[in-house]
Amino acid sequence: MSTGNHRAFFRFSGIDALLVVLGLVGYLCFALLIAPLHPDSTAEYVLTDREAIEIADTFLRGNGFDSDNLIVTARLQRDVDALTDIQHMLGRREAVKFLGSPVSEPMAAYHWRIRFAETEADDDNSSRFAASSPVFTIRLSQSGNVLGFETEDRSRDAAAGAASSRGVIVRQAVAHALSSESVPADSVQPLLGTVPDSTLRNRLFFDYGYGGVSRGVSALQSSDDVVRIDSAGMVALARYHLSRTALSTLSWSLTPSQASRPEGTRHTRVRMEADTPLAGQRISAELGMGVTGTITHLSVSYEPQVVRNTAMQTTLSFVRAGVYAVLVIVFIVLFFRRMVARLIDFRSAGIDALVMGIAFGSIFLLSRQGMFEGLDWPVWAMILLRVAVFSFVGIFTSLFVFVLSGVTDSFARDRFPTKIRTLMLLRHGQLHNASTGSGLLRGILTGGVLLGVMTLMFWLMDGSLPKVTDFMLSDALYRPIVGDVAGGFAATYMNTFLLCMSFGMVAYGTSGKGWIVIPVVALGTVLLQLAPASVVMTWEGVLIQAAAGVLLGLAFLKWDLFTVLMALFSSTLLWSQKQGLLVAGADSWIDSLIAILLLISLLIFAILGIVAGEEERSVKEYVPEYVAEMASQERLKSELEIAYQVQASFLPRSMPRIKSLDLAGMCLPANEVGGDYYDFIDLDEQHLAVVIGDVSGKGIHASFFMTLVKGILQSASQMSSSPAEVLRHLNHLFYINVPSGTFITLIYGVLDIQTGKFTFVRAGHNPAILLRAESSEFAFLQPAGMAVGFVDRGLFDKGIKEETVFLQPGDMIVLYTDGFSEAMNTKRELYGDERLAAKAAHVGCARSASAMLRMLTEDVYHFIEGMGRADDMTMMVIKRRPEA
Q1: What pTM, to 2 d.p., does this model score?
Q2: 503 belongs to a structural domain
Q3: Largest Cα–Cα distance of the chain, in whole Å?
Q4: Is residue 373 assigned to a domain?
């Protein structure tokens, strides 16, 4: 393709050059600055899954628990509340430094969760997934030290303590429980060594009322005395266990408000509190312990010294939900209104719905979380469940996208037709062209600008906090990049349409000013929280969301919807894949690499489209069916307007002023213009020709044929005084000049103004109604004659007959078209010639011609009330004045 043609389709301007620079700088800023700004950079896979499970299993067995026949899963995850509180107390930069130091190990911001669960006995274990009945959950620090130990059923604790008292004896732990300042643990342990396990299990008891530890130690030397562990011993036992966990760097004291809680003489529960806060957090630990020195429960809680104010986050969450609910309702209402008006492009909406339904549903096919976690189902059942969930989510998403796409596309064609042009090309498979290439290129570069701006704002505003989830990316999906590409594109598609085509379109439509789109899109981004970087909605987070919205609004105003879509997609994709760049040892690095390669491939495809894509003139524009119908309707409307003008032009503008005659006439056009026509032709001082007719068919063709009839009659009426001869001449010329099947019914007559003699012919028309002033009766005048245009000469000339009547003073003649006689009411009854003539006789000749015309018309309108007129209604009333 030539350069000139490309310039017509894509012009590389100064703005584009600036965008290239800013986009590349933005991606570079993101790559270089995100690590020191994000707490995920402090996470590390020091252990493998297998190593974490081995440590947890050793801990269980060391405390008397059996892990045989249990299914074990392990994953590294975040403590979202702890991360947020630490950043809130220290500031994000200091928090990142703190989390990267060894002193942060007790905080459990990033920790391993190892889950032991029961499974049903099955000969074919390969047909089972994860067990459905969890038993134990152990939390380890990243380096493998214990941070917590819980049983899913808390009632197991006492039983576990009793069981441990009959099984494992942790002699070193018991020694600490029996020690004191005068008798240290090192001195107690040799005494314990002299007591057999079976004897020690039977003699050890927790004693909540006894205060002397020395007796417990001395009791070891007696073969009969009970060895009692008092409250101080329980605290010592708790300190011993805490010293062997990730909490060992802290010093602990019994919580002042709570002493040890008895749970029998074989099991106890103690709540301890760290003497000094860590990172602004007060740390407490609750331990369940067996009398033989085992630990049966360990839970750690963190309480910030300064409570975060979450009022803004809560308020914005409610606002966000409310805005989404309102938008859904509005879109559904608009969809049905536009559908009724036949203004929905079902084909394009269907394409979007199908693609987005499959994309969004694929997330659930790949999901490792939620309803699929912990299910003990056969493989075939799990496959059916995933397919069922995929189908449900896909159908629901497709319905929503169908409504969203249908409404926004319909409105966009009214207000922003150029903004959806590239998207329309993509929908219908026209990928390799300069329009698509330029939109793709600008979108990816704008995504770089978005990432760069948000990263710099994170750098400048230390109070801005990234929003994170508890699970790592690789634990959420079997292959994160597939889910992020498919689901991410579907989500950004819906967000782009909601943002630009609802907020932006309404703003532009109501104000008519383009610049108003930018602040309104920024507001929509804040309310719906659509920025690529997920942030906690503090004031800093609001500013980041607003800045992203301003950039998206600028891109939409300057370019188009596809550019905004690709900007959101590319920036969201990289932000979601940052874990592979930040977390050391994460296997999701391959997903991050694929994401980068995907964007590079799209850039290459975009450049090829610009350089070697189709020329503008060869790109076939897609025109929706409803747009084609609207164009056809516009043409029809224009045609009808012309027809109305033509019809009005050959109707008399005023009635002839003749002293002896009272004349009235009208033509009421229906919604669809017909070919009704009436006229008065001044032949000479004594004779007046009258004509009323109805051309077959509707619309502009009928009007043009009536124009032809009028011209012929104007000429023929001057050539002959015989109405029959005039119609014979008209029939011949009309027959040879109009298409076969077109005809006209009419009455043509000549009235002698002085004598009242009326000679006329009827060519297949409705009969004339004669009203005599001397009586209240009517008479139909219907001489023989076929419609003009059926046949040429011959039969027509022989069949046409003239009839003459004399109008006495006060007499009337009513001429009309079938719009009167064939008017239909709601019962589908016709008004009819008889009813019209009877009504005319009832009105009587005493009325004026205009009064007769008005009263007949009103009676017909009353008859058809609720149905409307289906045809033109034309009528002429000729009355010879009584004084004539």
Answers
A1: 0.71
A2: yes
A3: 156
A4: yes
